Amino acid sequence: MQNIRIDLPAAVREKVATLLNARLADALDLKLQAKQAHWNVKGPSFIALHELFDAIAGRIDGQADDMAERITALGGVAEGTLQAVAGRSTLPTYPVGPADHVARLADALAAYGKAVRAAIAEADALGDAGAADLFTGISRAVDKDLWFVEAHLEQGR
Q1: Dihedral through CA 37, CA 41, CA 150, CA 131, nearest 10?
Q2: Which residues have CB under 8 Å from 31's CB, separation 6+?
Q3: What is the DSSP secondary structure assignment for residue 43, as one 8-state letter?
Q4: Which of 33, 56, 106, 144 is most exposed by smallest CB count within 10 Å?
Q5: This prediction's pTM
Q6: Measured between alpha carbons, how far is 63 from 57 in angstroms, rounded to an integer?
Q7: Residue pLDDT, tens place only, 100-137
Q8: Do residues 24 and 71 lie in contact, with contact meaning Cβ atoms separated by under 8 Å?
Q9: pLDDT tens digits, one per residue of 45-77
Q10: Which of the pair, 151 or 154, is modelled with greater confidence?
Q11: Residue 150, CB half-sphere, CA atoms under 13 Å: how many?
């Protein structure tokens, strides 16, 4: 950890940076999963899903950037390489071949949302209100994206 002037103890900043790096890995994985769905979706709702999946990838990219910048602001190192993400992501593996992209992306968003909600409590317990607030904003956005995706699972009911 770099020596910085933020008034959180180095041990706290290190734990929060580790937490943020864990969720950063999930975010970067989720962004790529959303792009995989965006590129490969087919069917009668193609254009709506194609655009929705791309918008979600864009929002997740912004969330990843916010997390990485918080890590570095705390004096840590943002670990966003492919190798770091592959070794750290907690999301379910996304298929490369044909898939029900709506259901698969809904599953990934739900898993990410659950991990982010746990991170809110953990950051709060560590005493970093800034990181807890960051995770709270991400949680709201992910829940909204999940709602949009799940609406497409309701077709025909």
Answers
A1: 20
A2: 57, 60, 61, 64
A3: S
A4: 144
A5: 0.96
A6: 10
A7: 999 999 999 999 999 999 999 999 999 999 999 999 99
A8: yes
A9: 999 999 999 999 999 999 999 999 999 999 999
A10: 151
A11: 11
Both tokens of residue 122? 């953990």
Q: Are 142 and 110 in contact (CB under 8 A)?
A: no
Helices 129-151, 46-73: crossing angle, 10 deg rounding: 170
CATH number attached to the domain at 10-154 = 1.20.1260.10
Q: What is the mean pLDDT of residues 131-147?
A: 98
* Tokens read off for 29: 């994985």
Instruction: Please check whether residue 133 is in contact with residue 66, taking contact to mean a CB–CB distance below 8 angstroms.
Output: no
CB distance 116 to 133 below 8 Å = no
Amino acid residing at 106:
A
d(CA 24, CA 40): 24
> Please, are residues 90 and 110 in contact by the beta-carbon 8 Å criterion?
no
Q: What is the pLDDT of residue 157?
A: 44
87-110 pLDDT, tens digit each: 999 999 999 988 999 999 999 999
Angle, CA of 64, 85 and 90, to the nearest 5°: 90
